[in-house]
Amino acid sequence: MHTATMRAVRLHAFGEPEQLVYEEVARPEPGPGEVLVRVCAAGVNPPDWYARRGFRNIPAELRPNWTPPLILGSDISGVVVALGPDVTGWRPGDEVFGLVNFPGRGSAYAEYVVSPAAHLASRPAALGHVEAAAVPMAGLTAYQYLFTHLRDRVGGTVLVNGAAGGVGHFAVQLARAAGARRVVAVASGRHEEFLRGLGVDRFVDYTRTPAEEAVRDVDLLIDTVGGPHAHRLLPVMRRGGQIAPVFPGDYHRTRAAELGITLTEGWQVRSSGPDLAGLAALVDAGKVRVGIDSVFPLRDAAAAHLRAERGHLQGKIVLSAEDRGFADHR
After folding, report:
1. What is the homologous superfamily of the domain 5-135+290-320 according to CATH?
2. Which tens digit of pLDDT belongs to each residue from 57-67?
């Protein structure tokens, strides 16, 4: 019996980007509650390069037990081609996007992917596949922070640190949509025009003036940078304010408590078709725009990872699985 195949990018050993190999593999089949999607574009996210390196940034006892060869990626936009048993709500030909099976293995760097039906939403009418594939993980992270975890804390001044990146550029827009009166963006100067175009009230170029010297009385800080020096941002907060880190950081918890600052950690984005549909509605209403840093053909996933390692992204990196009409934004 002939087994259907597809092209995909597989990781053959943990390490550098050259371990990502574009090759022919077996095409997956949907099981109960799943759909098979022809992938038109796939987003590139930090967990992808964490996995490529063998999750060295995670304590050994907490690392996922993944063994190469494996296909990375979780963000997709594409077309439903087949349904598994017991699937309702989708039909072949439907255009969808989604964060596939996260946290877990999504296998999105491929021409086809199997996804739980509940992890998908209809592709926003306002977006093409490349833009839609840039949304799921970063957009849902910001959406779930602001509309689920922090829905009662948005209303005053919101500061987004690392505002030009994937999560950051969604957070500045969704903070406004969630009811923030004032949005402050912190990034390097080359991102000022981009962020002002997204509607921020104030832009701070941290390469010229540290945010802790320029900003005061912040009600909510969404910190997409974190790191060992995250505590430097404590002076920007008002008493009673809240810090919501996207990446772990040292916020000097004792000092933060003395200043009356609440620190909330441990939230992780999760696949959710309903949340993604809510985000898509905001996109189609013109309240959220998608920033694209660069687009690479699927076969050049290694080059996309090299771009990610250079840092200072403005929006998202996307892999196009369709050669036809491919536009290179590098």
Report:
1. Medium-chain alcohol dehydrogenases, catalytic domain (3.90.180.10)
2. 888 888 889 99
